[in-house]
Each structure stands twice: as C-alpha cells, then as structure tokens.
C-alpha cells in the first residue's frame, strides 16, 4: 500500500477524503459496499438513500422511532450532524423517507458534505440513491473517489455505460461486483467501457448469496470474521487499498 490509512485520512490539507458509492441501477451492491468501506476506513457513513432498503435500515436505524432527523437538520439548518455510533459497524448519519421530496440542490449537498468532513475531521463515505438525482450528483461532486459497483449482467452494464458516459470527468473507480464466472461477452463489454474512458478498476468482488439473506446489522468485515465471509472481506480489503491509492 503506497499510502497508509492514517496518511490518507488526513486528506489534501483542506479536508479529509470523501468517497461516494454510486450506481445508476439498484441492486448492484452499492449499499453493502458503502457500509463495508465506511467501517474499514473508519469513516462516517452519510446515507442519502431514502428507500426502505437503505443502509440506515440495514444497520438497525428506524426513522419512525425519532421525531427529528439529523440529516434534515444538517441540510435545512446548517448544523453538522452528530453521527450515531454503534458496535462493530460504521458511525452513521441516517437517511429518512421524505428526503425524496426534500433534496437540496446538488451544490448545497456538495458544500454540506465537505463542511461536515472538515468539522468531523474524519473521512466520509456517502451511500446514494440509485440513478441520477440532486442528492447523488451533489455527493459525486464532493467525492475524491466515486466507487461504482458493476454487476456483469446486461441491465447493469447498460446502466454502467450510461453512467460512465455522463460522468466521464469524475474520479470513477469501477469494481466488478457479485461476480463468479461472468460470460465472455460481459467481460468484453466491461473492458470496452473501461478502456473507452480510461477508468481504473478495483478488485473483483465475488457473488455471495448469503449476504442477501443476512439479518444481523454489524459490518461483515468486523472481527471476528466468519469463515464464509473471508473471501468477501478479502475483496473489501482490496477495495480499501484501491481507494487509498487512487490518487
């Protein structure tokens, strides 16, 4: 690793790093990737996905149990949210369903994320809603690295191609996700997309069907790592190195 985690976390002298996980199609592993990266990078996870399958809910947060939303207050009142800490998982700024109607302009989202990273003095990982929307564009604008999971099936590769064509000038890092033995046509398609825009590739993340059936809300990468999770965690460790070394 050419940079240590400690050196990377110091950022560029103006603020700690921001990593955004984004995909133009749902179900590509974006949220799982975001949660694990945030845990392994000791970053604050900011959840901008308002759907029921968001990271916040997967981590055990239930918005209906609270009167206020720290994320809403962060955007509307200019407050830096206090992340929620938990055992064996990343610190979290949770999302809420009404964000779909209350999204700030993308520039406001960018400014807020950069300000929060400075105030926390910690790296930030942002989970986003699938597809292009104001909150997602704002998180992409703020990012030093945009991690893009790529599932090797037709629909996901179509969405990936559209995303890459739109965001050519952004610091994208594509990581093949949920992969075991992809067909040759899928390999060629991904290679063409990456080559056309000269985009770096992260490590391959194997398909782990047991993750989709998981009910506990701790990080998969937290110690002690289950035997069946070793291959997945090794992939996440490789992705962490790729993110740290991206620059």
- Order of strands in the sheet with the most strands? 3-2-4-1-5-6
Low-pLDDT runs: none
Radius of gyration: 17 Å
- Roughly how many Å apart are the termini? 12 Å
What is the number of E strands? 6
Based on helices, strands and strand pairing, what is the structural class? alpha/beta
The amount of beta strand, in percent, is: 5-15%
The main sheet comes to: 6 strands, parallel
- The gross shape turns out to be globular
Question: What is the number of helical segments per DSSP (H or I, 4+ residues)?
Answer: 11
Following the backbone from N to C, one meets helices and strands in this order, namely: HEHEHHEHHEHEHEHHH
Task: Specify the helix fraction band.
Answer: 40-55%
Oligomer: single chain
Mean pLDDT: 94
């Amino acid at each position: 690793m050419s940079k240590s985690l400690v050196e990377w976390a110091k950022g560029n002298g103006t603020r700690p790093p921001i990593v955004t996980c984004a995909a133009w199609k749902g179900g590509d592993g974006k949220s799982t990737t975001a949660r694990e990266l945030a845990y392994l990078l000791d970053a604050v996870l900011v959840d901008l996905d308002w759907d029921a399958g968001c990271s916040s809910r997967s981590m055990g947060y239930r918005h209906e149990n609270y009167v206020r939303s720290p994320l809403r207050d962060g955007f509307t009142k200019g407050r830096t949210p206090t992340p929620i800490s938990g055992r064996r998982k990343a610190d979290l700024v949770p999302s809420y369903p009404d964000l779909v109607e209350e999204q700030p302009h993308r520039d406001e989202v960018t400014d807020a994320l950069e300000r929060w990273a400075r105030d926390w003095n910690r790296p930030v990982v942002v989970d986003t809603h699938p597809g292009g929307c104001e909150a997602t564009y704002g998180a992409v604008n703020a990012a030093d690295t945009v991690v893009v999971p790529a599932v090797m099936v037709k629909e996901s590769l179509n969405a990936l191609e559209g995303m890459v064509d739109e965001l050519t000038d952004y610091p994208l890092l594509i990581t093949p996700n949920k992969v075991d033995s992809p067909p040759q046509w899928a390999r060629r398609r991904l290679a063409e997309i990456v080559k056309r825009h000269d985009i770096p590739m992260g490590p391959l993340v194997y398909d782990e069907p047991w993750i989709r059936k998981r009910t506990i809300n701790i990080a998969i990468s937290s110690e002690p790592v289950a035997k069946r999770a070793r291959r997945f965690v090794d992939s996440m460790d490789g992705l962490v190195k790729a993110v740290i070394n991206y620059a």
